[in-house]
Design a protein that fits this description.
This protein is α+β, with helices and mostly antiparallel strands. Helices cover 50% and strands 19% of the residues. This is DUF1648 domain-containing protein.
Length: 345
Protein backbone atom coordinates (compact mmCIF):
# COMPACT_ATOMS: atom_id res chain seq x y z
CA UNK A 1 0.00 0.00 0.00
CA UNK A 2 1.35 3.45 -0.89
CA UNK A 3 1.99 6.21 1.62
CA UNK A 4 -0.93 8.23 0.20
CA UNK A 5 -3.31 5.29 0.54
CA UNK A 6 -2.20 4.70 4.09
CA UNK A 7 -2.69 8.37 4.90
CA UNK A 8 -6.20 8.34 3.43
CA UNK A 9 -7.09 5.28 5.54
CA UNK A 10 -5.88 6.93 8.73
CA UNK A 11 -7.66 10.21 7.95
CA UNK A 12 -10.95 8.45 7.19
CA UNK A 13 -10.98 6.79 10.59
CA UNK A 14 -13.41 8.70 12.85
CA UNK A 15 -12.13 10.16 16.12
CA UNK A 16 -12.62 8.25 19.35
CA UNK A 17 -16.08 9.29 20.63
CA UNK A 18 -17.15 10.75 23.98
CA UNK A 19 -13.93 12.64 24.72
CA UNK A 20 -15.63 14.71 27.42
CA UNK A 21 -16.81 11.62 29.29
CA UNK A 22 -13.43 9.96 28.94
CA UNK A 23 -11.70 13.01 30.40
CA UNK A 24 -14.27 13.39 33.19
CA UNK A 25 -14.50 9.79 34.40
CA UNK A 26 -11.01 8.73 33.38
CA UNK A 27 -9.03 11.62 34.86
CA UNK A 28 -10.96 14.43 36.54
CA UNK A 29 -13.14 12.37 38.88
CA UNK A 30 -10.34 9.97 39.99
CA UNK A 31 -7.97 12.86 40.72
CA UNK A 32 -10.70 14.76 42.59
CA UNK A 33 -11.58 11.70 44.69
CA UNK A 34 -7.98 11.03 45.72
CA UNK A 35 -7.25 14.70 46.36
CA UNK A 36 -10.35 15.00 48.55
CA UNK A 37 -9.33 11.95 50.57
CA UNK A 38 -5.81 13.32 51.03
CA UNK A 39 -7.11 16.73 52.16
CA UNK A 40 -9.46 15.05 54.63
CA UNK A 41 -6.55 13.11 56.13
CA UNK A 42 -4.62 16.40 56.46
CA UNK A 43 -7.54 17.89 58.39
CA UNK A 44 -7.45 14.88 60.73
CA UNK A 45 -3.75 15.23 61.65
CA UNK A 46 -4.35 17.06 64.98
CA UNK A 47 -6.62 14.20 66.09
CA UNK A 48 -4.11 11.41 65.36
CA UNK A 49 -1.42 9.95 67.64
CA UNK A 50 2.25 10.54 66.84
CA UNK A 51 2.54 6.98 65.58
CA UNK A 52 -0.36 5.29 63.84
CA UNK A 53 -1.05 1.62 63.23
CA UNK A 54 0.24 0.48 59.86
CA UNK A 55 -0.54 -3.24 60.00
CA UNK A 56 -3.00 -5.29 62.02
CA UNK A 57 -2.65 -8.93 63.10
CA UNK A 58 -5.23 -11.41 64.48
CA UNK A 59 -5.16 -9.97 67.99
CA UNK A 60 -3.20 -6.73 67.92
CA UNK A 61 -1.39 -4.17 65.82
CA UNK A 62 1.77 -5.60 64.25
CA UNK A 63 3.49 -2.38 63.28
CA UNK A 64 3.33 1.33 64.02
CA UNK A 65 4.81 4.24 62.12
CA UNK A 66 4.26 7.72 60.77
CA UNK A 67 0.92 8.58 59.21
CA UNK A 68 2.90 9.71 56.17
CA UNK A 69 4.16 6.17 55.69
CA UNK A 70 0.58 4.93 55.63
CA UNK A 71 -0.69 7.68 53.36
CA UNK A 72 2.46 7.81 51.23
CA UNK A 73 2.45 4.16 50.18
CA UNK A 74 -1.25 4.13 49.32
CA UNK A 75 -0.97 7.53 47.66
CA UNK A 76 1.97 6.52 45.48
CA UNK A 77 0.27 3.34 44.27
CA UNK A 78 -2.98 5.22 43.69
CA UNK A 79 -1.25 8.01 41.77
CA UNK A 80 0.51 5.52 39.51
CA UNK A 81 -2.73 3.64 38.87
CA UNK A 82 -4.66 6.84 38.14
CA UNK A 83 -1.97 8.03 35.73
CA UNK A 84 -1.94 4.78 33.77
CA UNK A 85 -5.72 4.50 33.53
CA UNK A 86 -6.08 8.19 32.66
CA UNK A 87 -3.70 7.61 29.77
CA UNK A 88 -5.80 4.69 28.58
CA UNK A 89 -8.99 6.72 28.97
CA UNK A 90 -7.63 9.53 26.79
CA UNK A 91 -6.12 7.31 24.09
CA UNK A 92 -8.55 4.39 23.84
CA UNK A 93 -12.29 3.83 23.86
CA UNK A 94 -13.34 3.41 20.27
CA UNK A 95 -15.84 0.76 21.44
CA UNK A 96 -18.34 1.02 24.27
CA UNK A 97 -16.94 -2.05 25.99
CA UNK A 98 -13.42 -0.63 26.22
CA UNK A 99 -14.72 2.76 27.38
CA UNK A 100 -16.85 1.15 30.09
CA UNK A 101 -14.00 -1.04 31.25
CA UNK A 102 -11.39 1.73 31.40
CA UNK A 103 -13.62 4.43 32.91
CA UNK A 104 -15.12 1.98 35.40
CA UNK A 105 -11.67 0.88 36.51
CA UNK A 106 -10.33 4.44 36.67
CA UNK A 107 -13.14 5.74 38.85
CA UNK A 108 -13.60 2.57 40.88
CA UNK A 109 -9.95 2.13 41.80
CA UNK A 110 -9.69 5.80 42.84
CA UNK A 111 -12.64 5.36 45.20
CA UNK A 112 -11.15 2.09 46.47
CA UNK A 113 -7.77 3.64 47.29
CA UNK A 114 -9.48 6.63 48.91
CA UNK A 115 -11.63 4.27 50.97
CA UNK A 116 -8.65 2.20 52.11
CA UNK A 117 -6.79 5.34 53.14
CA UNK A 118 -9.70 6.89 55.02
CA UNK A 119 -10.71 3.62 56.70
CA UNK A 120 -7.16 3.01 57.97
CA UNK A 121 -6.89 6.53 59.38
CA UNK A 122 -10.46 7.04 60.67
CA UNK A 123 -10.26 4.19 63.21
CA UNK A 124 -7.32 5.99 64.87
CA UNK A 125 -8.98 9.35 65.49
CA UNK A 126 -9.14 10.67 69.06
CA UNK A 127 -7.53 7.60 70.65
CA UNK A 128 -6.62 7.72 74.32
CA UNK A 129 -2.89 7.31 75.11
CA UNK A 130 -1.97 3.62 74.77
CA UNK A 131 -5.33 2.69 73.25
CA UNK A 132 -5.11 0.11 70.45
CA UNK A 133 -7.17 1.01 67.36
CA UNK A 134 -9.65 -1.46 65.97
CA UNK A 135 -8.96 -3.10 62.63
CA UNK A 136 -10.47 -1.06 59.78
CA UNK A 137 -12.24 -3.99 58.12
CA UNK A 138 -15.74 -2.52 58.19
CA UNK A 139 -14.56 0.75 56.69
CA UNK A 140 -12.62 -1.12 54.02
CA UNK A 141 -15.68 -3.16 53.13
CA UNK A 142 -17.72 0.04 52.81
CA UNK A 143 -14.95 1.45 50.62
CA UNK A 144 -15.01 -1.66 48.45
CA UNK A 145 -18.78 -1.41 48.02
CA UNK A 146 -18.48 2.30 47.18
CA UNK A 147 -15.75 1.53 44.64
CA UNK A 148 -17.92 -1.07 42.90
CA UNK A 149 -20.86 1.34 42.82
CA UNK A 150 -18.74 4.23 41.52
CA UNK A 151 -17.14 2.02 38.89
CA UNK A 152 -20.54 0.80 37.74
CA UNK A 153 -21.79 4.39 37.53
CA UNK A 154 -18.80 5.51 35.46
CA UNK A 155 -19.16 2.50 33.17
CA UNK A 156 -22.86 3.17 32.73
CA UNK A 157 -22.19 6.79 31.75
CA UNK A 158 -19.36 5.95 29.34
CA UNK A 159 -21.70 6.17 26.36
CA UNK A 160 -23.10 3.65 23.90
CA UNK A 161 -21.54 2.89 20.56
CA UNK A 162 -22.80 5.47 18.05
CA UNK A 163 -24.60 4.00 15.06
CA UNK A 164 -22.23 3.83 12.10
CA UNK A 165 -23.69 1.75 9.24
CA UNK A 166 -21.01 0.56 6.85
CA UNK A 167 -21.16 2.02 3.36
CA UNK A 168 -18.71 -0.05 1.32
CA UNK A 169 -19.19 -3.54 -0.10
CA UNK A 170 -18.91 -6.51 2.25
CA UNK A 171 -15.49 -8.15 2.12
CA UNK A 172 -14.99 -11.89 2.50
CA UNK A 173 -16.74 -15.05 1.38
CA UNK A 174 -20.53 -15.11 1.68
CA UNK A 175 -22.89 -18.01 2.29
CA UNK A 176 -25.31 -18.61 -0.57
CA UNK A 177 -28.83 -17.77 0.58
CA UNK A 178 -32.03 -17.59 -1.41
CA UNK A 179 -33.77 -14.18 -1.28
CA UNK A 180 -36.30 -15.32 1.33
CA UNK A 181 -34.12 -17.93 3.04
CA UNK A 182 -33.43 -17.58 6.74
CA UNK A 183 -30.38 -19.04 8.45
CA UNK A 184 -28.98 -18.95 11.97
CA UNK A 185 -25.57 -20.10 13.19
CA UNK A 186 -25.11 -20.80 16.91
CA UNK A 187 -22.08 -22.14 18.75
CA UNK A 188 -21.09 -22.47 22.39
CA UNK A 189 -17.44 -22.08 23.28
CA UNK A 190 -15.76 -23.09 26.53
CA UNK A 191 -12.17 -23.62 27.67
CA UNK A 192 -10.22 -26.70 26.62
CA UNK A 193 -10.05 -29.69 28.96
CA UNK A 194 -6.36 -29.08 29.57
CA UNK A 195 -7.04 -25.48 30.56
CA UNK A 196 -9.90 -26.56 32.83
CA UNK A 197 -7.69 -29.13 34.55
CA UNK A 198 -4.98 -26.58 35.30
CA UNK A 199 -7.53 -23.95 36.27
CA UNK A 200 -9.24 -26.32 38.71
CA UNK A 201 -5.93 -27.11 40.42
CA UNK A 202 -5.03 -23.42 40.69
CA UNK A 203 -8.52 -22.49 41.91
CA UNK A 204 -8.46 -25.14 44.65
CA UNK A 205 -5.00 -24.04 45.80
CA UNK A 206 -6.12 -20.41 45.79
CA UNK A 207 -9.29 -21.04 47.80
CA UNK A 208 -7.55 -23.30 50.32
CA UNK A 209 -4.60 -20.96 50.87
CA UNK A 210 -6.72 -17.80 51.10
CA UNK A 211 -9.25 -19.55 53.32
CA UNK A 212 -6.44 -20.63 55.64
CA UNK A 213 -5.10 -17.08 55.67
CA UNK A 214 -8.52 -15.66 56.53
CA UNK A 215 -8.89 -18.18 59.35
CA UNK A 216 -5.40 -17.57 60.73
CA UNK A 217 -5.84 -13.81 60.89
CA UNK A 218 -9.52 -14.14 61.84
CA UNK A 219 -10.48 -11.69 59.12
CA UNK A 220 -13.86 -11.91 57.43
CA UNK A 221 -12.74 -9.08 55.13
CA UNK A 222 -10.01 -11.34 53.74
CA UNK A 223 -12.64 -14.03 53.18
CA UNK A 224 -14.82 -11.56 51.24
CA UNK A 225 -11.87 -10.61 49.04
CA UNK A 226 -11.15 -14.31 48.48
CA UNK A 227 -14.65 -15.05 47.21
CA UNK A 228 -15.04 -11.83 45.20
CA UNK A 229 -13.48 -13.20 41.95
CA UNK A 230 -15.66 -16.34 41.94
CA UNK A 231 -18.80 -14.79 40.32
CA UNK A 232 -16.63 -13.10 37.68
CA UNK A 233 -14.99 -16.41 36.74
CA UNK A 234 -18.37 -18.14 36.49
CA UNK A 235 -19.74 -15.36 34.27
CA UNK A 236 -16.81 -15.55 31.85
CA UNK A 237 -16.51 -19.35 31.80
CA UNK A 238 -18.50 -20.10 28.62
CA UNK A 239 -19.99 -18.05 25.80
CA UNK A 240 -22.73 -18.52 23.21
CA UNK A 241 -22.04 -17.06 19.77
CA UNK A 242 -24.93 -16.39 17.38
CA UNK A 243 -25.16 -15.07 13.83
CA UNK A 244 -28.61 -14.16 12.48
CA UNK A 245 -30.32 -11.35 10.61
CA UNK A 246 -29.50 -8.91 13.40
CA UNK A 247 -25.76 -9.55 13.09
CA UNK A 248 -23.28 -11.10 15.51
CA UNK A 249 -24.07 -11.59 19.19
CA UNK A 250 -21.61 -13.07 21.67
CA UNK A 251 -22.89 -13.43 25.23
CA UNK A 252 -21.88 -15.26 28.36
CA UNK A 253 -24.07 -18.29 29.05
CA UNK A 254 -25.12 -16.37 32.18
CA UNK A 255 -26.56 -13.64 29.93
CA UNK A 256 -24.01 -10.95 30.78
CA UNK A 257 -21.73 -9.52 29.50
CA UNK A 258 -22.89 -9.34 25.89
CA UNK A 259 -21.33 -8.01 22.70
CA UNK A 260 -23.38 -7.23 19.60
CA UNK A 261 -22.38 -6.11 16.11
CA UNK A 262 -25.37 -5.04 13.97
CA UNK A 263 -25.41 -6.59 10.51
CA UNK A 264 -25.33 -3.19 8.80
CA UNK A 265 -22.09 -2.28 10.63
CA UNK A 266 -20.19 -5.37 9.47
CA UNK A 267 -17.54 -4.46 6.91
CA UNK A 268 -16.41 -8.06 6.57
CA UNK A 269 -15.88 -11.27 8.52
CA UNK A 270 -13.30 -13.99 8.07
CA UNK A 271 -11.68 -17.01 9.64
CA UNK A 272 -8.80 -16.06 11.92
CA UNK A 273 -6.65 -17.62 14.61
CA UNK A 274 -5.57 -16.71 18.12
CA UNK A 275 -2.26 -18.46 18.68
CA UNK A 276 -1.45 -17.02 22.09
CA UNK A 277 -4.27 -15.59 24.24
CA UNK A 278 -1.71 -14.23 26.69
CA UNK A 279 0.53 -12.71 24.05
CA UNK A 280 -2.22 -11.25 21.87
CA UNK A 281 -4.87 -10.28 24.43
CA UNK A 282 -3.13 -10.45 27.79
CA UNK A 283 -5.12 -13.47 28.96
CA UNK A 284 -8.48 -15.20 28.65
CA UNK A 285 -12.03 -13.91 28.84
CA UNK A 286 -13.34 -10.71 27.29
CA UNK A 287 -10.27 -8.65 26.54
CA UNK A 288 -8.85 -5.72 24.65
CA UNK A 289 -6.15 -6.50 22.09
CA UNK A 290 -2.60 -5.66 23.17
CA UNK A 291 -1.65 -4.78 19.59
CA UNK A 292 -4.70 -2.59 18.87
CA UNK A 293 -6.16 -1.57 22.27
CA UNK A 294 -8.16 1.37 20.93
CA UNK A 295 -10.74 -0.61 19.00
CA UNK A 296 -10.20 -4.39 19.06
CA UNK A 297 -12.15 -6.59 21.48
CA UNK A 298 -11.55 -10.28 21.94
CA UNK A 299 -13.78 -12.94 23.45
CA UNK A 300 -10.89 -15.31 24.02
CA UNK A 301 -11.86 -18.49 25.82
CA UNK A 302 -9.09 -20.63 24.33
CA UNK A 303 -6.45 -20.61 21.61
CA UNK A 304 -7.35 -21.72 18.09
CA UNK A 305 -9.58 -20.66 15.24
CA UNK A 306 -11.55 -17.47 15.63
CA UNK A 307 -14.25 -15.44 13.96
CA UNK A 308 -12.78 -12.04 13.06
CA UNK A 309 -15.23 -9.24 12.32
CA UNK A 310 -14.21 -5.85 10.91
CA UNK A 311 -16.73 -3.29 12.10
CA UNK A 312 -17.32 0.23 10.83
CA UNK A 313 -15.44 3.02 12.56
CA UNK A 314 -12.14 1.17 12.70
CA UNK A 315 -13.44 -1.38 15.22
CA UNK A 316 -12.83 -5.11 15.29
CA UNK A 317 -14.11 -8.12 17.25
CA UNK A 318 -12.36 -11.47 17.57
CA UNK A 319 -14.22 -14.48 19.00
CA UNK A 320 -12.50 -17.84 19.44
CA UNK A 321 -15.03 -20.43 18.32
CA UNK A 322 -15.20 -23.66 16.30
CA UNK A 323 -16.43 -23.62 12.70
CA UNK A 324 -15.65 -19.92 12.49
CA UNK A 325 -15.49 -19.98 8.68
CA UNK A 326 -19.18 -20.95 8.47
CA UNK A 327 -20.14 -18.21 10.90
CA UNK A 328 -18.08 -15.64 9.00
CA UNK A 329 -19.65 -16.56 5.65
CA UNK A 330 -23.18 -16.35 7.05
CA UNK A 331 -22.44 -13.03 8.76
CA UNK A 332 -21.14 -11.60 5.49
CA UNK A 333 -24.31 -12.75 3.74
CA UNK A 334 -26.46 -11.12 6.43
CA UNK A 335 -24.41 -7.91 6.17
CA UNK A 336 -24.86 -7.88 2.39
CA UNK A 337 -28.61 -8.40 2.79
CA UNK A 338 -28.77 -5.55 5.34
CA UNK A 339 -27.10 -3.22 2.84
CA UNK A 340 -29.55 -4.22 0.13
CA UNK A 341 -32.48 -3.56 2.47
CA UNK A 342 -31.19 -0.08 3.28
CA UNK A 343 -30.37 0.72 -0.33
CA UNK A 344 -26.61 0.94 0.22
CA UNK A 345 -25.93 -1.81 -2.35
Amino acid sequence: MSADATSDTVQSRPPIPYRGRRVTWGAVVPVAVLASAFLLVLSWLPRLPEEVALQWGPQDVNRYGSVWELVGVLGAVAALSVSVLAGFALCTGRTAFIRRMVLGLATGQAVLFAGLMLASVAVQLDLAPGEVPDAPELGMLIGLAAALAAGALAAGLAGKDPRMPATGPVTGAQAELAPDERAVWVKTVSPSRRFLAWFTVIAVLYLVSMGALAWSVQSWFTLVLTLLPVPLVLVLYAWRVRVDSRGLTAASVMGWPKLHVPADEVEGAQLGEVKSPMGEFGGWGIRSSLQHPAGTIGVVIRAGEALEVARSGGRKIVVTVDDAATGAALLNAKAHRARQSSGVE
